[in-house]
Design a protein that fits this description.
homodimer; alpha/beta; 2 domains; eight-stranded parallel sheet; 16 helices; 41% helix; 17% strand; globular
Chain lengths: 389, 389
């Protein structure tokens, strides 16, 4: 169980199979986010159809509502949500910091007020693991603190040391053998603090390692220097998970640096806002051009929306504020990211990952339909995809 | 084409097959409403899966947005919406009255201001048929006026006479052979005015007849007396369509009186509001009881929601304001009405319709889970289901 077998490599990018209790998954992979026990607007059958492998759920949200007891009464997240495949739950640590009010962090744990009703809630390494055991995901995460950006070096250092002590408490408390607990390397954008976190975390030899504390406001250059540094120093025989990332370009760059797992609300959130992901960049379906476009979002895409609908119809649904619009754009965007990692895996197997990534980026960053101005391939991206060549 | 063959009868209730260009359908049937070219939240594949046969779309809404030209550029509603089966469009008359502002009705037609942007729009018998020909439904409706309730007898009489003159203009203008135009009998709740409308409308021998002007605020007793009177005087060899109706009890009562076709936004609208239709009445999923109920909405239902989800999970989705909640409750409610007419057809084939209807009503009107107080079977319902026995 939780065996991680590398099947191909191209530079530092690799493909692998990872065995979980609810199925063997292929990496690199993107994990859709089902914060409250549902990937917004998408059914479990659709997730299976578009090639989703692991679904992420948020401990913080499910702890507050409906509570872990109700999820456990359904036999855990698969019974509750009807998604039959593997799940990953985060520890709640990140959301306590970003959503909780009046939080008080001590060595013992964190007390905060619920963003829903202001009630007082307590999370600690032990309580987080207890809740995650009740939720029943295949992969659970160590309870950590993710410092904000920017933060004082001294704060980041104290925080990462406490995160290591909390990791030890998580592992001591954990009792379910059928759940893998991943540890999280912190250290912000400082190479020496990343090293310190690595030195303290690697000895626990958890079945997977996450890179935390990034994509919280630092620039792409600093972020990818930290990913580069950290991923290169994680054991090659264990999965590497870059938390809360990302956009298409983040997946392509992260995979080049040896990352295996990603998650982000971006595809569903940007879909609800009317944006569609394509190889030509992000298409703004709220603009006027799609209203008369009789072609699909993406002629190369095999999702339900692209096989059935014109851009004109989807643009009509958006203007008419019809629920089918966010549903279909979310579905397409998830499928786009799944197809992107599928293409990345194929390029790795053919040992031409950097070449494929640059070719993809040439079109993506120059896309005619792009919503944002991105003149050419950014240097952080080029450095990342050529780091292992 | 548009052949209507009665296959079984039980009292005045009947089953039939009705041939349309996009497929042969079984009556009695309930038609989901896709006002703006989408049944809210539901994909065409799901409509097919739950047994939808004809989808209704609204001429008024599609005329204003996106405009008939764009729908025609997709080859009509099937190409635009990706629902491959038969469509029915209404004439726009009803919505002009209920949604248009500053409307001015003359013998020639109706001028009104769009509820979307206040722009001036004109509809007439000729323009309605022109738009409905561009939308390309299999069944199109005569441009009529539906008087409000209550209205003066004199107004209803003048209106129904004009509606007949408008019907003649619709038929003169109509040029597409592959679309059936249904006429609409008006007359409010007055038997003599219904008779007058029937006398003037029946000679046109349209391929189907609608009963209009009901379910606009009159009581159930008056409404069903009008349905009873009108349906009994329509030719038996043509489909009868009770417009804008209904609730489950309306379908069961209307079928008993010989109605073949129904449409209503009720199942999707009440679903979006958190209500689920069952044989025990309407379940309020917003209340506290479902939050801990590990059973499905309806153990006898075969919809995706009932096969996969507990009431507790769906109640969680509602409280969490997740899009999957209105989607799944809409899907279930549509399937409930489709299953209801399927069961009605089976009872008609076994020539025990009234017996089945009363048995169904015993449970429905006494349902433990009902949202509204309905003490026992109402007399209008009993009178309707026993009218033909």
């Amino acid at each position: 169980m939780f065996d991680f077998q590398i099947t191909a490599q191209s530079g530092r990018a690799r493909t692998a199979t990872f065995v979980t209790p609810r199925g063997t998954v292929q990496t690199p992979m993107f994990m859709p986010v089902g914060t409250q026990g549902t990937v917004k607007g998408i059914s479990p059958q659709e997730l299976t159809d578009i090639g989703s492998q692991i679904v992420l759920a948020n401990t913080y949200h499910l702890l507050l509502r409906p509570g872990p007891e109700l999820v456990a009464a359904h036999g855990g997240l698969p019974g509750f949500t009807a998604y039959p495949g593997p799940f990953l739950t985060d520890s709640g640590g990140f959301q306590v910091m970003s959503l909780g009010h009046m939080r008080r962090i001590t060595e013992e744990g964190v007390t905060f007020k619920s963003h829903l009703d202001g009630s007082s809630v307590y999370l600690s390494p032990e309580r987080s693991v207890e809740v995650q055991q009740a939720l029943g995901a295949d992969i659970i995460m160590a309870f950590d603190e993710c410092p904000p950006y920017p933060a004082e070096r001294e704060y980041i250092q104290a925080s990462l040391e406490r995160t290591v002590r909390w990791l030890e408490r998580c592992l001591t408390f954990k009792s379910r053998e059928d759940q893998a607990l991943f540890s999280i390397v912190q250290g912000g954008v400082h190479a020496d603090l990343r090293q310190q976190s690595l030195d303290a975390t690697l000895p626990f030899a958890t079945p997977g390692f996450a890179i935390g504390g990034l994509a919280v406001g630092e620039g792409k250059t600093e972020m990818y220097e930290a990913v580069d540094y950290t991923a290169a120093r994680l054991p090659s025989g264990k999965p590497r998970y870059l938390m809360g990332v990302g956009h298409p370009e983040d997946l392509v760059a992260g995979i080049a640096l040896g990352v295996d797992m990603f998650d982000c609300v971006y595809p569903t959130r940007t879909g609800r806002f009317g944006y569609a992901l394509t190889d030509d960049g992000r298409v703004n379906m709220n603009s006027s051009a799609p209203r008369s476009d009789l072609g699909p979002i993406d002629p190369e895409c095999d999702c339900y929306a692209c096989r059935h609908y014109t851009r004109a119809y989807l643009a009509h649904l958006i203007r008419a504020e019809e629920m089918l619009a966010p549903r279909m754009l979310s579905l397409h965007n998830l499928r786009y990211l799944h197809r992107l990692v599928e293409r990345a895996r194929a390029a790795i197997r053919e040992d031409r990952y950097a070449e494929w990534a640059i070719c993809w980026a040439e079109r993506y960053f120059k896309g005619k339909n792009k919503a944002d101005e991105m003149p050419g391939i950014p240097s952080w991206f080029l450095r990342s995809v050529t780091a292992g060549v």
